[in-house]
């Protein structure tokens, strides 16, 4: 999954989210399935090496929360690119606790606090919202945290 280019190691985003051990580990731990959806729009986007681990930990925590707190059914993970940014969206059936406010979660104290502390502040956003009968966690990554791989025509 790693490739050396221009003195920087780059990590293919979609391949990493889809096939890395994160979803498999979360599925085994909780005995629930995670469906992955990639419409192909994020193929060819890469992460700088420095961002790969924090983003992998973020996806792991959000998948774990989705499966752990799902009222029933499976969690779903979708990755798509739009306007030079890549969005990772994780959904599950369930409800946020009354008055949930992501901004009020202290950094580093809980899993979500760690996620907030790990994500690149200038080039990513995290939102967790109630969407009808589902909870939706959405991470949006913008350059330089993610970028099209050199030579794919999107630079």
| Shape annotation | globular
Strand content: 25-35%
Average pLDDT: 80
Low-confidence stretches: 1-9
How large is the radius of gyration? 15 Å
| Biggest beta-sheet profile | 5 strands, mixed
User: What's the helical proportion of residues?
Assistant: 25-40%
Count of β-strands? 9
User: Count of helical segments?
Assistant: 4
The CA-CA distance between the termini, in Å, is: 21 Å
The ordered H/E elements are: EEHHEEHEEHEEE
Task: Give the structural class.
Answer: alpha+beta
Q: In order across it, which strands form the biggest sheet?
A: 3-5-6-8-7
What does this structure look like?
This protein has helices at about 15-20, 20-30, 50-70, 110-120; strands at about 5, 10, 35-40, 45-50, 75-80, 85-95, 125-130, 135-140, 145-150. The chain is an alpha+beta fold. The chain is built from four helices and nine strands. The strands form two sheets. A five-stranded mixed β-sheet has the order 3-5-6-8-7, covered by helices on one side. Helix 2 (about 20-30) runs parallel beside helix 3 and helix 3 packs antiparallel against helix 4 (about 110-120).
């Amino acid at each position: 999954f790693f490739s050396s280019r221009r003195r920087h190691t780059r990590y293919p985003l979609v391949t990493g989210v889809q096939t890395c051990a994160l979803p498999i580990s979360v599925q085994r731990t909780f005995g629930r399935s995670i469906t992955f959806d990639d419409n192909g729009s994020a193929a060819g986007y890469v992460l700088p090496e420095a961002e790969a681990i924090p983003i992998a930990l973020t996806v792991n925590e959000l998948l774990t929360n989705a499966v752990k707190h799902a009222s029933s059914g499976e969690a779903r993970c979708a990755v798509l690119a739009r306007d030079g940014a890549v969005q990772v969206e994780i959904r599950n059936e369930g409800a946020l606790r009354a008055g949930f406010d992501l901004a009020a979660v202290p950094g580093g104290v809980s899993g979500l606090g760690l996620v907030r502390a790990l994500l690149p502040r200038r080039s990513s956003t995290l939102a967790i919202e109630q969407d009808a009968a589902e909870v939706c966690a959405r991470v949006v990554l913008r350059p330089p945290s993610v970028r099209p791989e050199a030579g794919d025509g999107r630079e």
